[in-house]
Amino acid sequence: MAEVEMRGDINAVPQEVLDSMNVEQARETNKEALDSIGGPEGLAKQLGVNLHTGLTHDQVLQLRSVYGSNVFPESPMPTFLELLIEALSDTTLLILVAAATVSLIIGFIEHPAEGWIEGAAIFIAVFLVANISAGNDYNKGLQFKALEATSAKDERTSVFREGQIERINPMDVVVGDIIVLQAGDSICADSVIVDESVCLSSEAALTGEPEDMKKSKEKDPFLLSSCLVTSCDETRAIVIGTGTHSQWGKIKANLVTEAVNTPLQDKLEIMTQKIGYFGMLAAIMTFVALFVRTLVKNHHLAKGIIEAFILAVTIVVVAIPEGLPLAVTIALAYSTKKMYQDQCFIRVLAACETMGNATNICSDKTGTLTENRMTVVAGYFTDKHYSQDEFPTCGNTLNPICRDIIVENSCINRVAYIMDVDQDGNPLERPNIIGNKTEGALMMMCRTWGFNEDEIKHKIFNDVNGDKIFAFNSLKKRSTVVLLNHQGKGQVR
Hints:
Elements (H helix, E strand, L loop, with lengths): L3 E2 L5 E2 L2 H6 L6 H10 L2 H9 L9 H11 L12 H9 L2 H20 L5 H39 L2 E5 L2 E5 L9 E4 L8 E4 L4 E5 L1 H4 L5 E4 L5 E2 L4 E5 L2 E7 L5 H7 L9 H34 L4 H19 L3 H19 L8 H7 L22 E3 L2 E3 L7 H4 L2 H13 L4 E5 L5 E8 L2 H12 L4 H8 L7 E6 L4 E5 L1 E2 L5 E2 L1
Antiparallel strand pairs: 1-2, 3-4, 3-5, 5-11, 6-9, 6-11, 7-8, 7-10, 12-13, 14-15, 16-17, 18-19
Helix pairs in contact: 2-3, 5-7, 6-7, 6-11, 7-12, 10-11, 10-12, 15-17
């Protein structure tokens, strides 16, 4: 198999090879293509990835230069000129342009010195209305584009690099990265499971499959971007497709969709149409009345018809509240941005309308009314209760055997982990718990007792030798860790 040589200690697998194991709706073919290069281990070897430590930062830069960033195509934003042409295509404005043209011609014929003023004034009004409408639409598009960019920067995913788990933006993920997934995580890129874990993935948004798909290294190891991990222990997978080379990226590149109106905007447009019908009826009746008056009084017929026509068009323009839907859209965009500044992110514009009509809010307490942080403040160990005042020092007074059992269980029987630094390597003011907050609180308790959760886990737990963690879920209502006792000839504890 041909390989492209790169700088440093890694080789680049041709993009065609990666694409051959990432074909839509072809799990068996993809599995055969993966097995032909030695499975996940062979893929990692060809990419130069150490599955036990992950990529180095130098490798990340090299792989990004070869395969690109994990950026999905976006729908192009209309230019100001396109919006201006669209605004000038409005039926009412076209009618006004026609009326202005007729008025201008007749004015030049009848009164060459001043007859052009009325027609020119209508043209100027049409120009101003079209430019204001296009400018508002363009500014609205810029506002939402900036809002989406801000929200995208706040997204985070877990990757395993240089022997440590890091929280990075999904756009920074590259081919060869080892992503770390837990239940509830969104898959940021197409990837292949590299450990012995089993997980369930919801692919309904991508493939339409109604039931969760069981994923494992041996049978179906392929995880698809934009899908959701619904149930799993900690799962690690190596990325094989990012951006436009992922299955979601390929679909999104061919789906250029325009913004859809919210329910309120649709209702306003219907109301505008109904008001417009009444305005048209009034305009027609006015035109007929003025036309009849012109005939009865034997006024100049052509001039009378033009004046009646212009007055009728004026009634239509005044009657139709075309600025109302636009004003509502701008107000919603503004309110969404203000809510985001208050730490309330609105992903869908229609949500503002829904919440505006809400009379009762049923909210989950954790992370909404509280900070979604948890701390152990009291305990009952070895038939003794430690109050909140006694608890900080109980690690020194506990029976060492009991304390070691508590520490081992808290540090090993978990899938959560603690981040002490941010993405740039700067120390955090307060450690960030990723995953189950209860497990995080127990690990922080062990830290106050003088133990490091990672050191304890690496000392006792070894998944390569068969140790296994079964994460907590609401169905089992427990978490379990199985340690293979090698001294006991294969017994477990």
